[in-house]
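Team,

Forwarding the record for the chain on the shared tracking sheet. I've put the sequence and predicted structure together so nobody has to dig through attachments.
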Amino acid sequence: MTRDDQAMLAFATRWSRFGGGDEYILPEFGITPDVFYQRLLTMAKSTLINDVDFATRTYLMDFCASKLARPAPKNAAAARAAV
């Protein structure tokens, strides 16, 4: 696992209890929340985080899936439509 992967995992486990900390993802990692949760979900499903216990891994997969399933904010949808 890379240092960035470890930072994303630590961030997600710390902030997931508070809704995810979406407003801090872009400044912290330079990626949008959707990209962050997709990468984290991929990590949780792969063998990259074998050192994370099963309960945490399962929780993160569920959390990421729920974040990715939510509708996009209106301003983000409008920005995509303008492109």
